[in-house]
Every structure is written in structure tokens, then in C-alpha cells.
Design brief:
The protein has helices at residues 3-24, 149-179, 185-198; strands at 34-38, 44-45, 51-56, 66-70, 78-85, 88-93, 99-108, 114-123. The chain is an alpha+beta fold and 199 residues long. The strands form 2 sheets. A 4-stranded antiparallel sheet has the order 1-3-6-5, with no helix packed on it. Strand 5 and strand 6 form a beta hairpin. Helix 1 (3-24) packs antiparallel against helix 2. The protein is rod-shaped and about 130 Å long. The protein starts with a helix and ends with a helix.
């Protein structure tokens, strides 16, 4: 088995798993999606409701949340600062008009993913207060590991070693063939003639 065949075999054996690691490597945690809200989407609440709360699947970066609540009259219903507490975003509202209210939000998750979306709820006379938010399951940090980088580095080093060995082998073969003495044509012709006459 030649060195080139060995190099190709090692390349086939190592490149497959490394490519698999690279292609399947993803972010350590899932994107932060909206789990629920209070008021909930489609819910009818009273004008006494004084806050809108959004619950996300993961932590939100403080200072990145932007929430808007627009009433049926086209006026902004939010007031006060938007507060981020882990995966919970809260903003005060003044619901002076009855009818459908449109909520739009934009937050940045801890993994850097930008989450945007919207929902609608109604304000009706005689309606109750907003429902409570669903419980947010605790998020466990994903186990951190070395990832695919050691595999990539190891593969590159191994391929460089095999390429170097192949280059050395070719150089030595070329030097050996250049240093091997060749019999002159005249001498070899005389030897053949002497052999023929003796026979």
C-alpha cells in the first residue's frame, strides 16, 4: 500500500465525522420564542388592566425590549418604562378605549437572536382582569464542550503530516533514481556481443 493510498484512506475516515460535526453544530440554546402573554392573545379584558406582560422561552437581554400597544383609536396605550426580568417583559398600559388593541414587540434573546411578533386582545366593558401568565419552565444551561474545533485542528495537522511524508518520499525517490548509475550503451552492447560469441 502506497503512502498516497494511506493518505486517501485517512482522509475518507476523518473527513466524514468532521463534516458531520460541523454541519450538525448549532447554537447551544434554542431561540427565545414567546410562550404567553397577559392579556393573552384574543382575550377580552377590562379597562382596569394596567400592565402587559410577555413571557419568553429564554432570557431577554435587558434594555433591548421594545413593546407597543395601539388601541382602536390609533393611540399608543403603553406608559412608563419597559422592564425586563429574565424571560419576562413588562410594560404599563392605560386602556382608555374599548375595542381591539394591537401589540407588537421586539426583543433580543441572550443568544443574540432577535425575536419580533405581535398579538391582539380586546378591551370590553364588564370584562374581567387579564389572565395570569403560564408558568415558565426553568431553562438549564446547555452543557458546554470543546465542540468541533479540536477535530478540525487534528484533521488539518494529520493531513499536513501525511502531505509532508508524501513529499519527502517523492523527493527521496527522485534523488535515488538520479544517483543510480546507468551502464553506458557501448558497454552494454559489447557485453551482449561477447555473450553471443561465446554461445
Amino acid at each position: 500500500m502506497t503512502l498516497r493510498t494511506v493518505a486517501r484512506t485517512w482522509l475518507a475516515l476523518l473527513l466524514g465525522p468532521v463534516l458531520g460535526l460541523v454541519l450538525t453544530a448549532g447554537p447551544a440554546r434554542a431561540h427565545t420564542d414567546l410562550l404567553g402573554s397577559s392579556p393573552a392573545a384574543g382575550e377580552a379584558v377590562s379597562v382596569e388592566t394596567d400592565a402587559l406582560m410577555l413571557s419568553f422561552a429564554g432570557e431577554v437581554v435587558p434594555g433591548t425590549a421594545a413593546v407597543s400597544v395601539v388601541g382602536p383609536d390609533g393611540r399608543e396605550a403603553t406608559h412608563g418604562p419597559t422592564v425586563v426580568d429574565g424571560a419576562l417583559v413588562r410594560v404599563g398600559v392605560r386602556l382608555a378605549a374599548t375595542g381591539e388593541h394591537a401589540v407588537s414587540y421586539r426583543v433580543v434573546a441572550a443568544d443574540g437572536h432577535v425575536v419580533t411578533g405581535g398579538l391582539r386582545f380586546a378591551v370590553a366593558s364588564g370584562a374581567g382582569t387579564a389572565t395570569a401568565l403560564p408558568a415558565v419552565p426553568p431553562t438549564e444551561p446547555a452543557p458546554s464542550g470543546p465542540g468541533a474545533l479540536p477535530w478540525l485542528v487534528g484533521t488539518v495537522l494529520l493531513l499536513a503530516l501525511l502531505a509532508g511524508l508524501h513529499a519527502v518520499r517523492r523527493r527521496r525517490a527522485a534523488q535515488w533514481s538520479a544517483c543510480t548509475p546507468r551502464a553506458p550503451e557501448s558497454v552494454s552492447s559489447a557485453s551482449r556481443a561477447a555473450a553471443a560469441s561465446s554461445s
